[in-house]
Amino acid sequence: MCLGVPGRVLSIEGMVAEVDFFGVRKELRLDIVDEPVAVGDYVLNHVGFAIRRIPPEEVQETLALFDQILDVTGAKDDLMAMDVQGEIAAGRDRR
Amino acid sequence: MADATTRMQFRDPARARALAARLAELVDALGRPVSVMHVCGSHEQAIARFGLRALFPRGLDVIMGPGCPVCVTDAPEIDEAVALARQGVRVATYGDMLRVPGTAISLEEAGAEGGAVESVYSITQAVELAARHPGEQVVFFSSGFETTAVATAAAILAGVPPNLSVLSVHKYIPPAMEIVAEMPESKVEGFLAAGHAAAITGADVFLPFVERHRLPVVVAGFEPLDILAALVRLVELIRDRRPAVENAYPRCVTARGNVPAQDRLWRVFQTAGGRWRGIAHIPNGNLRLRDAWAAVDARRRFQIDVAGLWDGAPAAHAERCICGDIMAGLRRPSACPLFGRECTPEAPVGACMVSTEGACRIWHTYGGVPDLREAS
């Protein structure tokens, strides 16, 4: 029951949002989400309740955090090239 | 550019390899083995599913602690739900709870006897169920840590049908971390905190723990990169002998957490001491409904007679089950003589094999010993 999954809000009616989770649609209650939610936002779901609106800028911040951790090792140059490879791979995987 | 959905899956192999290399360097430089504990079944699932232990350096032991709320639900608590089902009450609960052994039988067995037992994904489904059966009493048997308790609180505050009540076996994780950290056998030098619980409580909830036990805590997400990055930070803090709280999951967790959700949680629940299955009595480890909500509290609405369930005979295998030691992080599932033999997901002996968040169930699902370092 503890799975927390991010999903994208498709529509909102009152306290209930329809949310897409990597292709699965589910209704979520919005009673306890930390910030107002709009269509297109990402939210974290827990047992049918949105518990967090994930601010888009913080997705970037997370990636920056990983790179900051790695920066100490001097591995960042390689990561640039790897990012490009990663993007190509991601494009291939997308259905 | 990968689209946002793909970017929400933090699984970039290049970053993962680089983080694993950094982790290996750090543990190597420490020059001694180091043990850390996570307290979340979802962390163990991610570690097993993505084969992360194969990436961890040999000197790093990442142990699962009491991170499965279903597993730590004590047998007498299951008995209460079984007794209600036998009294003719319709019992709704999260699916994982059905097969958890009680003192005598499980809820699933109570259902097979003719009891009305239903699994639901969310308390909102229990509310709907009660509305559909206005002539019956419906009890939501509500398990889970504080993150899940918030959902229960929100549903109660929003108003539930008069024929619905709540049997709370919700657990509160910070006090359990204290107990595990104090176990004299424990070699744990730092904790990964569960990101979703912290999304509600905030990272700062761990400050008193860090202060008291002088052990670092890093809040971690559930994607492979989240876990690797958090482990890097945790080992750095151990190396620097710096007991501090760090947040390696900033996209979902803030220092203060989701304050409106906390407000709802503590308006409805208060902490109380209680036994966690196989581990210990945990002071303030349970969440019970406040007196103001007595009207929706199944323990106050019904006379729950559990004494009638007990036939006095202990379950055949239960004495050899080491779930308690596993949940305290003292032993691994593979050390249990029952694991994969007498105890399987189809016929679980201990609670750790029942829940998809239990260490034994996860290890069994991913090949018994999901630590590929042992195979090499």
Present the secondary structure layout.
The complex is a heterodimer of chains A (95) and B (376).
Chain A: E1 5-13, E2 16-21, E3 24-29, E4 42-46, E5 49-54, H1 56-71, H2 76-93
Antiparallel strand pairs in A: 1-2, 1-4, 2-3, 4-5
Chain B: H1 4-7, H2 13-30, E1 34-38, H3 41-49, E2 60-64, H4 75-86, E3 90-94, H5 107-112, E4 117-120, H6 123-132, E5 138-144, H7 146-158, E6 164-171, H8 173-182, E7 188-194, H9 195-201, H10 207-213, E8 217-220, H11 224-239, E9 245-247, H12 259-268, E10 269-276, E11 280-289, H13 298-301, H14 323-327, H15 359-365
Parallel strand pairs in B: 1-2, 1-7, 3-4, 3-5, 5-6, 7-8, 8-9
Antiparallel strand pairs in B: 6-11, 10-11
Tally of helical runs of chain B: 15
What spatial form of chain A do the alpha-carbon principal axes imply?
elongated
* CATH architecture descriptor of the largest domain in chain A: Roll
How much β-strand is present in the residues of chain A?
25-35%
How helix-rich are the residues of chain A, as a percent range? 25-40%
The ordered H/E elements of chain B are: HHEHEHEHEHEHEHEHHEHEHEEHHH
User: How many DSSP helices of chain A?
Assistant: 2
Oligomer: heterodimer
Describe what this molecule looks like in 3D:
Chain A starts with a strand and ends with a helix. Chain A contains 2 helices and 5 strands. Chain A is α+β, with helices and mostly antiparallel strands. Chain B has a 6-stranded mixed β-sheet with strand order 4-3-5-6-11-10, sandwiched between helices. In chain B, helix 7 crosses helix 12. Chain B is globular and about 65 Å long.
What can be said about this structure in brief?
Chain A folds into 2 domains: 50 residues, Roll (SH3 type barrels); 37 residues. Helices cover 36% and strands 34% of the residues of chain A. Chain A is built from 2 helices and 5 strands, in the order βββββαα.
